[in-house]
Amino acid sequence: MGIYYFHIRDDLGLIEDQDGIELPDSIALLMEVIQSADEFAREAAIRPQMRFEVADAAGRTVLMTPVQQSSESWALLASLSVAAGSIH
Question: Which residues form the DUF6894 domain (predicted)?
Answer without folding.
Answer: 4-67
